[in-house]
Amino acid sequence: MTTQSRGFMSGLPRDVYDRVHQYAVDIVNASARDDRRTVAAAFRRLRQYYLRQEARGLRHPFLPETVGDFAEDAGTRVQLYRHALDLARQRRLPQQTILLALGEVYLDMSCVGRARRCLVAAKAHARVNSDGDTVGRARQLLGQIGASRRTRG
After folding, report:
1. Strand positions, DSSP E, the chain
2. Is 74 within 8 Å of 108 (Cβ atoms)?
3. Helices (H), strands (E): how many in the chain?
4. Burial classification of residue 46, based on how many CB atoms lie within 10 Å of its CB (0-12 exposed, 13-18 middle, 19 or more buried)
């Protein structure tokens, strides 16, 4: 799960947050033990829970963003983060952590232009929302993009 800012949980029932948080803890703990089977099972439970919530009409960016944080496939992560971003925009909720995560995935995929756009937007949104951690991480990644261009150029 990513950094939360003011108002991020707006409209998200506490029991849903608690359930998603527990699935995330299960994944992290299993990863720390290098227990791939338990990681996969916990991820499946998280994803199924997210899909059930959306089917019930609960469409909140926290759900696809958190699933995206634990998905292994880059294409799946991009889809989940883009969906989370759409939901955050519709609800006028903070977007910086979603934009940061999307920028990181694009960077991993060597889509530098897309990564840069997301990271610049993440930094701007983070400033507006007083999210210093996200500002710092976006700045760091943008610096890496700039350094790699200077090295190649």
Report:
1. none
2. yes
3. 7, 0
4. buried
Write down the pTM of the prediction.
Answer: 0.89
Distance CA 153, CA 150 (A): 5
Distances (CA, A) of 30 to 19, 27, 34, 50: 17, 5, 6, 20
Q: Which of 83, 31, 23, 11 is nearest to 47 (CA)?
A: 23
> Tens digit of pLDDT for each residue in 89-113?
999 999 999 999 999 999 999 999 9
**Which residue has 């940061």 as its token pair?**
100
So where are the chain's domains?
A: 14-80, 94-153
Half-sphere exposure of residue 150: CA atoms within 13 angstroms, side-chain side: 6
